[in-house]
Design goal:
The complex is a heterodimer of chains A (161) and B (110).
Chain A (H helix, E strand, L loop, with lengths): L1 H23 L14 H11 L2 H19 L2 H22 L6 H24 L8 H25 L4
Helix pairs in contact in A: 1-2, 1-3, 2-3, 2-4, 2-6, 3-4, 4-5, 5-6
Chain B lengths: L3 H23 L6 E6 L2 E7 L4 E7 L2 E8 L2 E7 L5 H4 L9 E4 L4 E6 L1
The chains are: A mainly alpha (161), B alpha+beta (110).
């Protein structure tokens, strides 16, 4: 039990640091919602090593912590929607052997952005945001690809605990 | 590490997004008026031909919308991220500038 607490605690801490780094270095493409998605490296790592629910639990805790530390209530709502949809999509994509962690990550990143857009559309309506979707998808593919490669290295080299 | 499926998925997504962008750009039409809504409720409708500045002050915050040279932009706002202020000026039907924290949507109508 103590070993599990330490293990998940470490990974949660790592994910929060990733969120903090993104907070310090804001991406400015003028389009809201584009992030590096570094914390997803941890989420994907957990998905492969320990399972869907473990990844979801750590991701939810990370969103709450980051939201309390350097976000706000609405950002927690958007991130939870995006992150949960992303993990669900990644769980299914992972089952297809034609994808490595890279494809899983790209699918997750695209789902994440769509999930956040849907959450924001609950607040202000979908028509207002539809123009952002192509830009968000392109950014998601690029960042998802890189995050997938980094997660892949971690998955390969870190022994399962 | 990278498999064929990864590449195909990435290319398909990017192509789909690019095609949508090309279509949106090609089918763009000049708008005639701007409609501002706050939290889903219509705040006002303004002709793009009338140069004016509109101040929207609600419990969510304050935004200043400027109509000049037939284009609409947010000239100032007190929201934390100021994405709305950074946004390029809009003038085509369907285009929007959104201030999410203040629930303000500026949309161009024909």
């Amino acid at each position: 039990m103590a070993k599990k607490t330490a293990y998940y605690g470490c990974l949660l801490g790592l994910a929060v640091i990733c969120g903090y780094v993104e907070f310090l270095i804001p991406f400015d493409f003028g389009i809201p919602g584009i992030k590096l998605g570094l914390a997803n490296i941890v989420a994907i790592f957990l998905l492969y090593k320990n399972g869907f629910w473990q990844a979801l639990a750590v991701n939810t805790a990370r969103v709450l912590l980051c939201g309390i530390l350097f976000g706000n209530a609405m950002s927690i709502f958007y991130s939870l929607c995006g992150g949960t949809l992303a993990l669900t999509v990644m769980f299914f994509v992972k089952k297809a052997s034609v994808f490595s962690s890279v494809g899983v990550s790209v699918a997750g990143a695209v789902a994440h952005n769509i999930g956040q857009l849907l959450a924001a559309s609950v607040v202000i309506g979908f028509a207002a945001l539809i123009y952002y979707l192509p830009f968000l998808i392109i950014a998601a593919v690029v960042t998802g690809f890189l995050v997938g490669i980094m997660a892949g290295y971690l998955i390969k080299r870190v022994k399962k605990i | 590490m990278v498999k064929k499926g990864d590449i195909i998925l990435s290319v398909v997504c990017i192509l789909a997004a690019v095609i949508v962008l090309v279509f949106a750009f090609a089918l763009k039409t000049d708008g005639k008026s701007a409609v501002i809504t706050v939290d889903g409720e219509t705040f006002g409708e303004y002709l793009l031909s009338d140069e004016q500045e509109i101040i929207i002050s609600t419990e969510f915050g304050t935004n200043k919308v400027q109509i000049k040279d037939g284009k609409v932009s947010v000239s100032d706002a007190d929201c934390p991220d100021r994405y709305c202020v950074d946004h390029v000026a809009i003038d085509s039907t369907g285009e929007t500038v959104v201030c999410l924290p203040h629930r303000v949507v500026v949309e161009i109508k024909e």
